[in-house]
Specification:
CATH class of the largest domain: Alpha Beta
CATH architecture of the largest domain: 3-Layer(bba) Sandwich
CATH topology of the largest domain: FAD/NAD(P)-binding domain
Protein name: Adenylylsulfate reductase-associated electron transfer protein QmoB
Largest sheet: 5 strands, parallel
Organism: Dissulfuribacter thermophilus
Pfam families: FAD_oxidored (PF12831), Fer4_9 (PF13187), FlpD (PF02662)
Distance between the termini: 33 Å
CATH superfamily of the largest domain: FAD/NAD(P)-binding domain
InterPro entries: 4Fe4S_Fe-S-bd, 4Fe4S_Fe_S_CS, FAD/NAD-bd_sf, HdrA-like, MvhD/FlpD
Strand content: 15-25%
Low-confidence stretches: none
Family: Belongs to the HdrA family.
Length: about 775
């Protein structure tokens, strides 16, 4: 259907002072063929909305461009049924970020640059609405409203109760014979609120009673998940008796090491296939679905954590291996049984040393997986010693880091006032048998610079909480990318998608993490986390019903389509999708799963054949926007550069920088992209062949300090840069004309500098040698 386009330009907030808006109107109705183009000094007011609505009805407009404030502002008033809407941030991208003083001797030249900038943005916006189509939601007809919770500890039971309270049916799967998890082994737990100086009885039994009496909750104990197949809204889950094998166990792919022969060379395809079949003998292929599987809409992983147990020979200087040297979890079990007794001879314990760090002197000095929780547990267990032996009991806590966040500081201060509890910062250099059944602990570099030695009955090591997902599949997914979450080793085994910006999200859409698999937590924190995960599970089911994406693009009803006639089965889309949204058939042809898809577009960026795209965001749409930019052929002072800005970090940074009055070069044109992973090399080629002089990819951080909202998009874009460099070299162009820069959302002050430095580098190189061809 042909487009009847209306262009509406907001003139407030300094826009009309920065640019000639009348020229923008002429451009829209003349060169660009818009049906209507108007300005309004208060476009977002009821009067402005009424003006647009009247034109939509009287002129039959089916696409409108609202050129004014940042598209990150919602303004649902402009959402007219059947009318495609494009929002353009003239205020932030032009007026606020390119303010010119009248006293500037180059004011006229700069104004010319800024006017050209605004005109190009109008061209790009109109071109987009001409090319884009209205998304149509892919609604699941009858998504299941049942929620599966893996894990029956405090986190899992809380998540189940929260979801049940919202009216959803829940199944808890617990591998142990009883509910409760590690919380059932506690003698006491940390305070949940005032008075923060006192420990409280465990609340786990109360939770168990509530779960068992709730008609919306089913409990399967001594049970594990054998396989989770299919998609959010229609997960097909097979169960098995804990500790047994099942034909529906999710097949396990070969590891990188298993794919190699004894010389380190990859095995032939036939041998790989045979080895895979031997490894998964008796298991059904991941493409098969158990006909007796139960159906669920979403999954909450609350399988918790397991204690870190030092290996034999580890921490020898701390006398690990001596029966009186135990971990904090082992000490908790002793305390649960009554007054703590020494393992070696059963003597009641009167003096205990709690060691927080294995002897180092910097931030890497803690025990593996240590956290604020291990600090709090040591304080809690020191209180046990004083409760058991109020007259003679002594607890020594030696630490490099003592972490007591929030109001737990009151708990810490309360213990400081106890005359039988001694806290000392220092490095424990040795623990040895003292010849009297007990142990001597030597500590150096205390706060006073002295070395001290104490004799104790026992030593407790503050080892950490290891997420169960580090070494176990837990979810056992029937996904092409394997049964577990991807790249867990990068994140310490925690199954997060982005724990800073999107808590509860995992690398698998519809599966949400809470509690110890999310990070080390106290019981109070785990209960709060469980409530959040339950809400996300409910939202996921609603998203499947309504046909839109889950976080972060919850408003997005579009989804990628594939032109399969040209698919070469290269598998790049299935392999590079961060969320396992794509399976494939025996030939390698991708099989889309809309409810798994996060709409990041990484598959589109990966496809060398350019056959993947969205109705309003595809190779042609963005490529046409690039080509719509006017590139002067004969003016070395008017070079043109494109910036692909990630919508999650980079684009908000630009908005914030503009609002703070930062300036960047008017020679660049910003195109927001869903993720740098969606940037196809074709766009960069389009830019360079159109005479653009440089291209900058501006996205989230990757690597150890990753911030990418789609997990690996920036990293994948960085890998593709090698192909771009090769292409530019083959054309006799400098590979430095295309760069990638990383930025976090709080680094808005750095973005203008990044852009301006890039512009300076391109200006020094000079014009694109293919300009004007």
């Amino acid at each position: 259907m042909s487009k009847k386009i209306g262009v509406y330009i907001y003139t407030g907030d300094g826009i009309k002072e920065a640019i000639d808006v009348d020229k923008l109107v002429e451009l829209a109705t003349g060169e660009l063929g818009a049906t209507v183009a108007k300005t309004h000094e208060n476009l977002y007011s009821p009067d402005g909305v009424a003006m647009v609505k009247q034109d939509v009805e009287s002129e039959g407009l089916n696409a409108i461009v609202i050129a004014g404030v940042s598209p990150r502002h919602e303004f649902k008033e402009f959402d007219f049924p059947g009318v495609y809407l494009e929002k353009l941030g003239l205020r932030e991208l032009v007026a606020w970020s390119h303010q010119i003083s009248e006293d500037d001797e180059n004011a006229d030249a700069k104004k010319e640059h800024v006017q050209e900038l605004a005109e190009d943005y109008i061209r790009m916006a109109v071109t987009k609405v001409q090319k884009a189509e209205m998304p149509e939601p892919d609604k699941m007809e009858q998504p299941s409203d049942r929620i599966l919770v893996i894990g029956g500890g405090v986190t899992g039971m809380t998540a189940a109760l929260e979801a049940a309270e919202a009216g959803y049916k829940v199944t808890i799967v617990e591998r142990e014979p009883e509910l409760g998890g590690f919380a059932a082994k506690l003698r006491k737990q940390l305070p949940l609120g005032p008075d923060y100086s006192q420990l409280v009885p465990p609340l786990v039994q109360d939770l168990i009673s509530k779960v068992q009496s709730n008609d919306n909750i089913e409990v399967k104990t001594s049970t594990e998940v054998a396989r989770i197949a299919n998609v959010p809204g229609d997960y097909r889950v097979s169960f098995k008796e804990a500790g047994t094998k099942s034909e529906w166990d999710a097949p396990v792919p070969l590891t990188d090491e298993e794919k190699l022969d004894e010389n380190g060379n990859e095995l032939p395809a036939e041998e790989l296939k045979k080895k895979y079949e031997e490894k998964n003998e008796g298991r059904k292929e991941y493409t098969e679905v158990d006909p007796n599987a139960e159906v669920y809409g979403a999954v909450i992983v609350a399988s918790g954590w397991k204690p870190y147990v030092p290996a034999e020979g580890e921490f020898e200087h701390l006398a690990w291996g001596n029966p009186n040297v135990v971990t904090n979890c082992q000490f908790e079990e002793l305390a649960k049984a009554g007054k703590v007794k020494r393992p070696s001879d059963g003597k009641e314990v009167k003096a205990v040393a709690f060691i927080q760090s294995p002897g180092g002197k910097d931030d890497d000095a803690d025990f593996p997986y240590a956290s604020a929780v291990t600090s709090l547990v040591s304080l809690k267990q020191a209180k046990y010693v004083r409760e058991d032996q109020p007259e003679e009991g002594k607890a020594y806590i030696f630490y490099q880091h003592m972490r007591t966040p929030g109001q737990y500081e009151y708990f810490y201060k309360g213990l400081q006032d106890d005359p039988g509890i001694f806290l000392a910062k220092g490095s424990v250099t040795e623990v040895k048998d003292n010849g009297q059944g007990g142990l001597t602990v030597n500590v150096e570099n205390t706060l006073l610079g002295d070395s001290i030695s104490v004799d104790v009955d026992m030593v407790v090591l503050a080892t950490g909480m290891v997420p169960t997902t580090r070494d176990e599949a837990v979810v056992n997914l029937a996904y092409r990318q394997g049964p577990a979450f991807r790249d867990l080793d990068l994140f310490g085994g925690y199954c997060d998608s982005n724990f800073i910006c999107f808590p509860y999200e995992t690398r698998r859409t519809g599966i949400y993490a809470a509690g110890g698999v999310h990070r080390s937590m106290t019981i109070k924190e785990a209960m709060e986390d469980a409530a959040g995960a339950a809400l996300k599970a409910v939202q996921c089911i609603k998203a499947a019903q309504e046909g839109h994406a889950v976080h972060p693009r919850t408003w997005d009803y579009d989804y990628p389509s594939f032109y399969f006639q040209r698919c070469t089965q290269c598998k790049r889309c299935t392999e590079e999708c961060p969320f396992g949204a794509l399976d494939d058939d025996e030939k390698g042809t991708p099989k889309p799963n809309p409810t798994r898809c996060r709409r990041c577009g990484t598959c589109m960026g990966a496809c060398p054949e350019r056959i993947i795209g969205f109705k309003d965001y595809n190779i042609d749409v963005v490529g046409s926007m690039i080509k719509a930019i006017e590139v002067p052929d004969d003016d070395d002072e008017k070079l043109r550069m494109i910036v692909f800005a990630c919508e999650n970090d980079a684009y908000p940074c630009l908005d914030m920088a503009a609002s703070k009055g930062y300036w960047w070069s008017p020679l660049v044109r910003i195109i927001p992209v869903r993720c740098l992973g969606s940037v196809n090399v074709a766009w960069i080629k389009d830019a360079m062949s159109s005479g653009m002089d440089g291209a900058l990819l501006l996205g989230c951080r990757f690597g150890d300090d990753y911030q990418c909202h789609f997990v690996k998009g920036s990293e994948l874009a960085n890998r593709r840069m090698e192909n771009v460099a090769e292409t530019l070299n083959s054309l006799g162009m400098e590979p430095e004309r295309v760069k990638l820069a990383q930025v976090a959302i709080d680094e808005y002050d750095k973005v203008p500098e990044i852009i301006n430095n890039f512009v300076d580098e391109i200006m020094e190189m000079g014009p694109n040698p293919f300009k004007g061809w």
